[in-house]
Amino acid sequence: MPELESDATPSLTYRENYVRRVSEENHLVFDSPYFWDVEPEDLPLDPRRRLPGFERAFLEIGFGHGEVLEQLIQQYPRTAFIGIEKRPYRVRKALKRLKRIGSPNAALLRLNLDLIDGPLFFPGSFDHILINHPDPWPKPRQKHHRFFDVQRVEWLTALLTKGGTLKVASDHTEYFFHILGLLELNPDLESHLPAPFYTSWPEPDRPMSRYERNRRAAGEIVRMLRFTKVK
Hints:
- It is a single chain.
- The chain has helices at residues 12-29, 47-50, 67-75, 88-101, 150-159, 173-185, 210-217, and strands spanning 56-61, 79-85, 106-110, 126-132, 160-170, 189-191, 223-229.
- By secondary structure, the chain is of the alpha/beta class.
- It has a 7-stranded mixed sheet, with helices on both faces.
- Helix 3 (67-75) packs parallel to helix 4.
- The longest helix is centred in the first third of the chain and has 18 residues, at 12-29.
- The relative contact order is 0.15.
């Protein structure tokens, strides 16, 4: 899930060197055709160039262990899937899943989005963006680490094609409604769902992670929203 690794605010120099440094680390850690290793000069990235020939492009941010991504890749073989996760052990697990299913329509990035300066992808790169259970950082002193704010919503909106969709799911009530409020304020987005603009009913074809299945089994409410870029 999208998050910072500590409460410390990194220096500008740290941010400026982040992509190069993490690329050097990735060279040592990952050896897979499904891993997308990038250098600073590669930015902004073009997912349709990395995975050409597919009808749509899909981005999952914070794919965890890759359970949902694995299922989606098999459900939609004509879609190119890009996944972003910051924790190396999660990326390794997801790469094993991709190797097992042997699908050509996926590439994974190991990056911490909070440390990226400048554009990561070209505008309009994706038809769909999925974010499941972003870290709520529930303590008051932690809330500035949350993934969603006005600027982040603007960034996500810019990544979508016109008519593209942004889906978010969360079991944290306060954070979910904070996210919903941010999306409602963006003039380029409209809810795909009628008022109150979210649902807690599982969608028939929507894959769920083990985390979400466990939360639902424990009686927790998981709310989902879906917004469409209309401008």
